[in-house]
Amino acid sequence: MKMSNKEQIGSQTNLIYGVDDNPTVGKKVLFGLQHIFAAFSGIVVVPLVISGALGFDSAMTTSLISASILAAGLATIIQAYGVGPVGARVACIMGTDFTFVSPAISVGSTLGMAGIVGATILGSLFEIILSFFIKPLMKLFPPIVTGTVVCLIGLTLLPVSIDWAAGGNGAADYGSLLNVSIAMLVLVVTLLLNRYGKGMVSSASILIGMIVGYVVCIDFTAVTEASWFAIPNILEYGIIFDWKAVLAFIPAYFVTTIETVGCLKAIGETSGVEMTDKKIGAGILADGFGSICGGLVGSFSNTSFSQNVGLISLTKVASKHVAVMAGILLVCLGLFPKLAGVINGIPQPVLGGVGLVMFGMVAAAGIKTLSRVE
Question: Does the model's pTM come out above 0.90?
C-alpha cells in the first residue's frame, strides 16, 4: 500500500521533541541557546557589513546590531508562536539576510538609514501580498524543485562554514593550522556527543561542542566593550518613503520568499510536519510582518534562517516552543549588549566546526526529499 505524503514524512523522522511538544523551561533555554549560536553570526554580520559600506560610526553600528538582534527575536516569536493567521508555528528562526545587503547599501548611500527603514517597511508589503498567492505559486515547487533548493541551501552554506573554519574572511591568520584544528576539534566533539551521547548530552551536542571551542580560544573583547543595557529607539533614524528605493528592495523580497518556501519545506521534512499551502502562506506572512518589526526598531528586513534546519536534524528537537524561547532570548540579548557580546565573541573557527555539521545536515535533508521523487 502506498503511504500518504504525511505518513512518508513521519516515517522519515525520529524526534525526541515534536513540533507541539513543550520541554521544561531549562531544556527550552538550553535548546534555544543552540539555535541562537547557530544564527547569531548571520544576524550581526549583516549590520556590520552595511555599516562599514555606508561609513556609519561605531555608536550607530552598535545600535544597529542591537536593533537587528531585537528584531530577529520579535520575528522569531511571531513565526514560531503565531499571531492569528500569521506564523507557520514551527521551529523556524528568523533574522536579517545577506540578500538585502546590496539594496540597503544602494538606498542608504543616497537616503541614509531613514531611506533603508522606509524601503524595508514598504517592501515588506509586497511579501505580505505574495503570501496570499502561495497556492498557485506552490505549483512551481514540486518535490523535485524543493528538494533541489533545500539541497543547494546546504551546499551553498558549506563554503561559508569552511571560511569560518579557516578563521573568517580577512583574518590575519586565515587558514592557519591552529584555526583548522580548532574547527576540527569542535566538529569531532559535536559528532561524537551526538552519536554516542545519551539524552540531553546528545540533544545539546552543538552547544557543548561550541563551549569546548570557546574555552580553548576564549576572547572577552566583545564582552568588555559592550554596554550593559540599551533600548533601540523606535524610528530612531527617521523614515523616508521613496518608491524608487522600494523598487531596489522588491527583487530581494521575492528571492527571500522563495528561500522561505524552501526553508519551511525543509523544516517540515525534518520535523515530521506536512507543510500545507496555508501553513507556508502563514510563514511568508510572518516574514513580512517580521520585516516591518525590523524597520520600526531601526533595523533591516527579516527572513527565515536555513542554517537552523540542520540543528533540528542533528538534535532531533523540533519543538516550536524551543524556537519561541530562542526568540525571547534574542530579545533579551538585543536589550542587553553585554550578553550579546558573549555570543558575538565566539571565534570563527568554532562556528566553522559546527557549521560543517549543520549545513551538511541541511543538504542531506534535500537529498532525502529527492530520493522519493519517482
Answer: no
